[in-house]
Write a structure and sequence with these properties.
With about 230 residues, this protein is of the alpha+beta class. The chain folds into three domains: about 10-80 and about 95-125, no CATH class; about 145-180, no CATH class; about 190-233. It is about 30% helix and about 25% strand. The protein has four helices and ten strands; from the N terminus they run αβββββββαβββαα. The strands form three sheets. A five-stranded antiparallel sheet has the order 4-3-2-1-5. Strands 8-9-10 form a three-stranded antiparallel sheet. Strand 3 (about 55-60) and strand 4 form a beta hairpin. The longest helix is centred in the last third of the chain and has 42 residues, at about 190-230. Residues about 80-90 and about 90-110 have low confidence and may be disordered.
Length: about 230
Amino acid sequence: MSGQGLSTEEVAGIREAVAAGRKPKVVFTASAGQIAGQVGQVVALTDPAVSDEFVVVRFGRDELPFSPVDVAVAPRGAGRKVPSAERPAGEPAAEPVVVPEPEFVLDTPPPARTVGEDASARAAESAKPARRAVKPAKAAKAKGPAGLTVTLAYAEGEWTVAAQQGAKVLAKPYVVKPAEALRMVGLVDVSGVQEAVEQILAAERAEAEQQAEKLRSELAEVEARLAELREAG
């Protein structure tokens, strides 16, 4: 049994054989774990750019993907009937012994070995982990509360505040006094925000002074008219 796996040339040859409708036999190498030494049939080769395990092998009743290092080209006669030993003339032929291809079962312990097998080989195979062990399910992650967003805005001479949690509106925009808005803005220690607020306040002060000056002028005209009316009376 080869321990080197498939070479690039062998992979190319197997791909051609599968494309022609054949199912080349391969033998599992030591890197395949517990099934090392068993024989399977290549039924397909997928895209190696997608996964390193692109050699699909039929083993028993399963078709599983393997890496090229997990399999090697099977020697001639692998998995075929083993002829019986020579017998004396006239003795009836014994039934031929067939080497079965065992079914591949996930996460099973290694099969029991007969007495007299090499102890070191048995220990090495027992130490190998079973291939394709079922991964434990990930614990469900607790979902936290939705994020909360509080928005302070200024538009058309008014400051407004709104609040929303996820897609739920907690508070629609409502008007707040400039002093309250400025206290909220003061919590944001960002120079750009502070400069923008100062510009807004300067514009509002200038507009308020213009309105006050206009009202004082109108009031002076009303008072002068009132004085004329008193003198006339």
